[in-house]
Every structure is written in C-alpha cells, then in structure tokens.
What does this fold into?
Amino acid sequence: MAAPARFRAWIVAFTLWFPVMDACAQAPDFTALVERYSAAVVSINAEGPAGSEGSPFDYFRHFFDRPPGSPGVPGLPGPGIPDVPGAPDLQPPMVSMGSGFLISTDGWVITNAHVIEGAESVTIGLSDRREFTARVVGIDRPTDIALLKVEGANLPSTTLGNSSSLKVGQWVLAMGSPFGLERTATQGIISALGRTLPGDSYVPFIQTDAAVNPGNSGGPLFSLDGRVIGINSQIYSNSGGYMGVSFAIPINTAMEVVDQLKKTGRVERGWLGILIQDITPDLAKSFGLDAPRGALVSEVLKDGPGAKAGLQVGDVIVRFNNIPVQRSSELPPLVARTKPGTEVTLAVVRDKKERRITVRVEQLPDQPDETPAPEPTPSSSRIGVQVAPLPERLQGQMEGVLVTTVTGGAAARAGIQPGDVIVRIDTTRIRDVETFEKVVAQLPSKKPIPILVLRGGGTFFLTITLP
It folds into this structure.
C-alpha cells in the first residue's frame, strides 16, 4: 500500500539531509592552523614621500590598492589640510598597507613588491603588538616579490610547502590584513593552476576562491596541513573588491627569487630574445601541427640569443630541454629559471618538420627595446583591408605595409585592426604594397593562412581564411 504523501515528503527530506550532514562533517577545521601560524603573519605599513602617487600597477594588481581619497579606510591619508588663507601647502605622507609573513625566526619577511615599492620607510607589526622597522633587502618586479629583514630573535615563523604538488579542488586558507583588519583568515579551494595574467610572464599563478581584498597583498596562502603554498598577490574585480577570483604566487617560484635576493639583492633571469604567442587551432593547421601546442615565435629580437642560434619567426617551440611545451605561457618560466650562459636544446617545428636548435641563454636585459608605432595613403585588397606604405621615417628600419582601414571580410574576422603593420603573409615577407597585393591575390580559399602583424611595439600571428 502506498505511503501517505506527508510520510513520503519526510522520506525525501531525510534523504536530502543526510548527504548535507555528511559533507558538513567532512568540511575542514582551520582552527589549529590559525592558532599555530597566525602569529607569523605580519601587517606592513609602507610610508612614501608626501604627494607620491604610488607605483603603476597592471589591470589586475591595481585592485589591491585603495581608491584614492577613500574616507574612513585605515592607512589612507585623510582629506588633507583645510584651505586656510596663508596656510602652508602641506600634504600628508602616502601610506600603503599590506601583509607579509615571517619565513625564519631571525626576521626574514616576504611580501609583495607592489606593497613596499617606492617607500621611504617600512614597518611590520606582529600579533603581540610589537613593531619592527624593516630593511628592504631586494625587490623583484617581474614576480612581484619583495624580501625584508627585521632585527629580532625567536620570532614566530611559518613552514613552507611545495607548490608543485598542488591539485585543483584542495582546501586553502588565506591570511592577511584586508582593509587594515589584521590577521583575517578566509578559506576556499584552489580553482586553477598555472594561470598567466597580462604583464606577468614569469609567474604560473594559483587561482583560488578564498576571499582576498585590498590589504591582503603579500599575505600567505596555506594548505590544509599548515604549510605556505602561495603568496596572495592579485584579484580580478569589476568593483575593486572580492569577486571570487584571486591569484597567488606559488611558493616555489617565490623562494627561487628569495634565494637570489638574499645572496645578491637582485635576480638573474635567462632570456632567449624572442616574442611568443599561443597556438590556436587554425594556427596549428597552418603550421602543420597535429594539435594546438607549443609556443609560436612571433618576433626574433636582433642580436639576441635566439637570433644568434638561428631561431626564425614562425618557428613553434614544442620542447625546452626535453620538457614539453603545451602552451606559450609555460616557456617563459622555464627560460627565466635557466642560468645565463647555459646551453639549452629546443625542439622546433619549422616548415612542418621538427628539428633541434641549441641556444645559449643570456641574461634578461632590464628593458627590451620597443619598435616605434607607425603613423598613417591607401590601396584595398580582397581580404578586406586598405593598406599604405610605411611612413618615410620607418622605411629604413622595418618592412611591411600599414593597415589604414579594415573594410570587413576575412581581415575583420581575423582581428586585424587599423594601425597594424602586416609584416609577413604565410612564408612571404611583405616589403611593400606591390608585394602585399601580389601575395593576397594568390591566397587560396578555405585554408587558414598565418599573417604576422606588428601592433603596439610587438609582433604576433593571426590566421585569415578566405571564403
């Protein structure tokens, strides 16, 4: 006989409730971790000269800064001196607040470079209200790591973990001083590994959904066993606050930098002297790859190590010293960790055949040269663009044709923009408008063709397919 409707509803409710209770029983308890290690998490106050604007951060990192002039936020200057006739034009010093953590009992502290960059004095605060003046040992902007030293003994310290063994889905705990609220703990999971962000070629970021806000910068990211596996560094946000997407620097990457800063105060990085981009499915077909993989060389810098070794634009690097390169973002950290002067072997796909090239890695220069942007008198083509010769001031420095107008069609679909310089189509270098028109007239239909363009001082490939 069928059970009464009310009885069946109770059965369904209990059936749904028991899995929830079981999940709650398995949820992690972070209390022991916080009790043991929170004392090693420090707050950082970095004071700069009056009227300073701070450091220019990229699109992601600037969300760790406080909005200029926000009232009532700890660490921000107030509204300033009232406008009193005859009063001196005084401005309070700029104060940046962030987080950090001790990695030894004798006072070595790690934080983010953007927290203390440009500061004239740096003070760290401990949980027992002691304060220390910190000496800046070294700053590494490419990885956003700064190493500080305070004079002390028997200080609390963290235990470092191994970020190479992390897995997506594992629990993590972030600690820091969001909005000046010291030693705040927030929990989440690892959302993704090996993330590459704009302007950060050397850091394979850990992405988490642990709540991170302004002031968390430089604080530790703990694994469930209480080991530091990352340094909270950046967030992605439309509002300037937490939106569930946070990024941490892997501790292994950070400690490679810290070891060099301890020894010399600076970081040496390997350099190949090339610009690279990812391989799309269309580019993979056009370069004869069985699947989208590798790092596509879009520019070989003159007199760089890659040029000396014979690397060419259009080469696809698929292995670095026998380490497979699946995405272009995997190559820069491998090169950066290579000691300058070391010879490495690259597996390169060129003309749809794999070959090996030996390159002697050199020291990364402080600032690579940038190609000046050209200026705009036109000719149209079947791919949907109007092009013109390069301005006279550039004609002796580079080759190519200037895109003055994109009229639609295949060029628009490929992403070509006015102001681009088309340098190469397939394997043919474009020396002038006549060469461009001749090559375009002979392009086949229904086949992806790689086009090398110069935009904003860098070159990269796009693929164009004519209907």
User: Anything to note?
Assistant: The longest strand covers residues 184-197. The chain has ten helices and 28 strands. The CA atoms of residues 211 and 379 lie 54 Å apart.
